[in-house]
Amino acid sequence: MTAAAPRPVDVHALPAMLTALRLPSIQRHWTMLADRADAEGWPASRFLAALAEVELADRDARRIQRHLQQSELPGGKTLATLDFKALPGVTRARIEALAAGDWVETGANLIAIGNSGAGKSHVLCAIGHALVEAGKRVLYTPTTDIVQRLQAARRDLVLEAALAKLDKFDLIILDDITYAQKDQAESSVLFELIARRYETRSLAIAANQPFSAWNRVFPDQAMTVAAIDRLVHHATILEMNGESFRRRAAARRRSSEPVAAPTASSDNIGVEATDNINDKLREISAE
């Protein structure tokens, strides 16, 4: 029995096929790479590898951008805009080591304690931005907001499902945990979040009160001790008791000294996403 003749390939149908296969980057760049492959005599395997690299680079960029949007991290609070010289007792090397994210791999925690305006939130958000860029899932939230959401879930009898949805985040940043007095119901759902993530997924917490004053967070003494014990067991603690950034800025304004505009962030994920794809194309062209 003779083998059936191969079907002719309809090159004109390629854009439609790439759309059906959800390969938008290959669809955008294949003609340029095909011309280069023809001109330089690339083997089919090299041409195919070049197309795959461009598609993977674009997918990584889109995923990072999507995760950044879902993180709810404040824009502009990145490592590039962090004034390391003004941080009390925290070195650049230490922050950059935390931004590398090894501690997140083990489910450890990060706690920044210090005066209001000392830069705690900026430090935690900058680390969060770096972790998103490295492929981690991060969620930033004021503590009051997440407590309200979890309380609503408890009232609707879906607290377990709400906590399970948070499991997808490698790191949750709880800002201003000691900002306001919490009642028993509020502290209860917050404790459940802390207990659920203990030794499995990371928390980063900004607090303007020392642990000795955390009875404002957890009115029940036993719950206070249990929560602190779980948080600090595997934790890095940053003590940031310095002059308020906001107070210094106000003093500069009063003395009519010019305040430097925020530095353009080199951690802008959207720009880096495009740059990564362009870099990949340049690498292919240079081969």
TrEMBL record:
Residues of the region (Disordered) are 252-272
Molecular functions (GO terms):
ATP binding
UniProt domain AAA+ ATPase: residue ranges: 106-238
Q: Is Nucleotide-binding one of the keywords UniProt gives this record? A: yes
Which UniProt keyword terms apply here? Answer: ATP-binding, Nucleotide-binding
- A GO BP annotation: DNA replication
Signal sequence interval, chain numbering: none
- What Gene3D superfamilies does the record tag this protein with? P-loop containing nucleotide triphosphate hydrolases
Which domain of life, per UniProt? Bacteria
The protein's matches in CDD domains, at most eight in alphabetical order, are given as: AAA (cd00009)
Family affiliation = Belongs to the IS21/IS1162 putative ATP-binding protein family.
What is the protein name stated in its UniProt record?
A: DNA replication protein DnaC
What is the species of this protein? Answer: Cereibacter azotoformans
Q: What is the lineage of its organism?
A: Bacteria, Pseudomonadati, Pseudomonadota, Alphaproteobacteria, Rhodobacterales
